[in-house]
Write a structure and sequence with these properties.
It is built from 21 helices and 4 strands. The chain has helices at about 1-10, 25-35, 50-60, 65-75, 85-90, 120-135, 135-145, 150-165, 170-175, 185-195, 200-210, 210-215, 220-240, 245-255, 260-275, 280-290, 300-310, 315-335, 335-350, 355-370, 375-390, and strands at about 40-45, 75-80, 100-105, 110-115. Keywords: Isomerase.
Length: about 400
């Protein structure tokens, strides 16, 4: 169930979200912050020489999906367990192997312990399991029904969100109360976590009270939640192929970031055209997206290339040309452009554009330069294959 929520929470490459934000303060400061924000602390206890630790640092912690979930639900900390920086932490906690991943409450007690590296999907499941240990839903429900306070509602709704259950009825019922105090911290936090879709009254409340919420939770938290809500509405518009709903997503993002809303508009036009049946509409939308939405953004360009490559229109020469334009632009911008050139060469080979594929494969090899020998052999093998085919 939690993955349903994650799909709503996580932004695509078009919206911010660059992995886990690790807290830079001391261990006592992390504990104090966990108590103030009523969150668990996630600790990556690692060693500098540890290969699996390096893998997680390079590939898992930067994952936008992981970042969205961990930044929303935990105070995140990293400690090298063999250096002085972890001395206060090591007075209470230990690691017999690396990495050791800990979920610790504000009382400095371990809620959940993991040993060994995790890929993103497993780490997300483990994080959900840690939260489930502290979210006693039956107890929270009883408190909500007995008290009906903003604090009780906030904690009850938060448990629903963490588990992937629908929270909107409970949140809306509370936020419609005639005598509601919109200055109360719990009310502001309830608005923040409940604003999961831009086409909603709660999203409007988020924007209306964003200054107060930002003062309480930080401007970054408000902006990221607003963008996540926009993305959820965007995806819903695609699912139902709803132009009006797409306009709503764009208009709501414009209230937060006007420039980004223009990019989203061109992305939405392209995404809807991709799901349509009119090739000319797709070609026009793709050209617009290349110019106004994906220009200068490696990840957007890669995604655009992939979408065109897998589209039902890819047998048309003009669509192939647009895919090549997107793939080439990504390669020129990327620090590892040889990979993009290699994928593009393989794509052109499948489309029987062999001479063009050969030129791109040679660019891949030239861009790799004195890179790893195994990569050079793979690219050279493709070049030899294409040279033989074009004789």
């Amino acid at each position: 169930m939690y993955r349903i929520l994650l799909l709503i929470l996580v932004l695509s490459t078009t919206v911010a979200g660059q992995g886990i934000d690790f807290f830079q303060g001391s261990w006592p400061e992390a504990l104090a912050r966990a108590e103030a924000e009523d969150k668990l602390i996630f600790v990556d206890a690692y060693a500098e020489w540890c290969g699996p630790c390096k893998m997680m640092t390079a590939n898992v912690f930067p994952d936008p999906e992981v970042g969205a979930y961990f930044n929303a639900n935990f105070i995140n900390v990293k400690f090298d367990m063999e250096k002085p920086e972890s001395e206060e932490f090591r007075e209470v906690h230990y690691a017999k192997a690396f990495p050791t991943l800990l979920f610790i409450d504000a009382k400095n007690e371990v809620v959940h312990r993991l040993v060994g590296a995790r890929q993103s999907p497993q780490l997300l499941r483990d994080a959900a399991a840690a939260l489930a240990q502290v979210d006693d839903v039956d107890k929270l429900k009883s408190a909500y029904e007995a008290k009906g306070t903003a604090e009780a509602t906030y904690k009850y709704v938060r448990a629903f969100i963490r588990s992937g259950e629908s929270h909107l009825r409970i949140a809306n019922d509370h936020l419609r109360a005639a005598d509601l105090d919109f200055t109360a911290p719990a009310t502001l936090r309830l608005i923040l976590i409940s604003a999961t879709e831009a086409d909603s009254r709660i999203y409007d409340l988020l924007l209306e009270h964003r200054a107060a919420i930002a003062e309480l939770e930080g401007a970054k938290a408000v902006n990221e939640q607003a963008r996540r809500a926009v993305r959820a509405t965007f995806e819903k518009a695609l699912e139902y192929r709803d132009d009006k709903l797409m306009e709503t997503a764009v208009d709501k993002l414009a209230l937060v970031d006007r420039d980004e809303s223009r990019r989203l508009a061109s992305e939405g036009e392209f995404a809807l055209a991709l799901r349509g049946a009119d090739r000319k509409v797709l070609v026009k939308a793709t050209k617009n997206y290349l110019k106004k939405g994906a220009d200068g953004d490696v990840e957007r360009l890669r995604e655009l290339f992939k979408n065109l490559e897998n589209s039902s229109f890819i047998d048309y020469s003009e669509v192939i040309d647009l895919a090549v334009e997107a793939g080439t632009a990504a390669a020129e911008l990327s620090s590892e452009g040889w990979k993009d050139y290699y994928r593009l060469a393989r794509f052109l080979q499948t489309r029987q554009r062999l001479e063009q594929a050969l030129q791109v494969a040679e660019k891949s090899l030239a861009t790799l330069g004195e890179g790893p020998a195994n990569y050079r052999r793979s690219i050279q093998g493709l070049i030899d294959e294409l040279r033989e085919a074009t004789k």
